[in-house]
Design brief:
The chain is mainly alpha-helical. The chain has helices at residues 2-34, 42-56, 58-77. The relative contact order is 0.05.
Length: 78
């Protein structure tokens, strides 16, 4: 009979953990939805600046990309 009691206790503990997990996820989703978008991140600022630079100097950007690709290919072949 104790095996059944242990199984029941395990089941209740699992249900409690699952309920706590669901509550936590629900709170996280509510927090994400309610908060307005933050100021642009560093990554977003960097990509914007990189895009402007590439548009201003397309040939230099293509040359850098080809050179970097060549170096990566040489390193990978070793």
């Amino acid at each position: 009979m104790q095996a059944q009691d242990a199984t029941g206790q395990d089941h209740r503990a699992l249900e409690d953990r699952l309920g706590a997990f669901k509550d936590g996820v629900g709170k996280l989703i509510d927090r994400i939805v309610r908060e307005p978008a933050a100021a642009p991140s560093r990554l977003k600022a960097f990509t914007g600046k990189a895009t402007e630079t590439i548009k201003a100097y397309p040939l230099a950007a293509a040359a850098c990309a080809l050179g970097l690709g060549y170096l990566v290919a040489r390193i990978v072949r070793r």
